[in-house]
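Following up on my earlier thread - several people asked me to post the actual chain instead of describing it. Fair enough. Here it is, all 227 residues.
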Amino acid sequence: MKTKSKRYLALAAKIEKGKRYPLDRAVGLVKETSTAKFDETVEIAIKLSIDAKQVDQAIRGSFSVPNGIGKEVRVIAFVDDALVDAALAAGAVAAGGKDLADKIKDEQWFEFDVAIAEPKMMRVVGQLGRVLGPKGLMPSPKAGTVVPDPVKAVAEFVSGRQEYKNDAGGNLHFVVGRASFEAQKLSENIQAFYKHIQSIKPSGVKGNYIESVAISSTMGPGVLTTI
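Reply from S.P.:
Thanks for posting it. Predicted structure:
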């Protein structure tokens, strides 16, 4: 069993175990307990009452918070030759068709965080399933990374749009900013993602859909909150 550091225990002592704090207070506590020497990432964790084994209850997609997440996102685009320049201008680190697929496959090149593709390019991208799939980089319509307007998608992901997907326990984790963000901006990002998840409640889920919400920084303790 991993032992928590004295630093972590001291920070955790500032938070009442099991208490659900109002969002503004919870954000304040996360900022107060973010004492690492780097600008810590702030993440929201949402516990859902879904049955993760049921396909029709899976929660997956992509979302862009209003104030960005303070992180550089490297995006590539599988597009027709006519859109290569536009995709690069939108912020893609690389764009192309078969040439880009060959680079990934032959050179084992994975210097990117998100791969976007227009539907007709999936015939090219399909050959990369075995290398991109295990890394979570395979473009998918459900994740919002196979789209008819790839240039727009590139711009959105570069500016902070992220994919999300529930885990086997029905939990969602999503980055909402950095500890250096103003408290109001963090709160706005958290509320925006929370409302988005509320809006996509599967019809098969009855009763209480969102069981709990916690926010935390990279090195800090989790803080339960009400939104």
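Residues 75-158 form a domain with the Rossmann fold fold (CATH 3.40.50.790). That should answer part of your original question.
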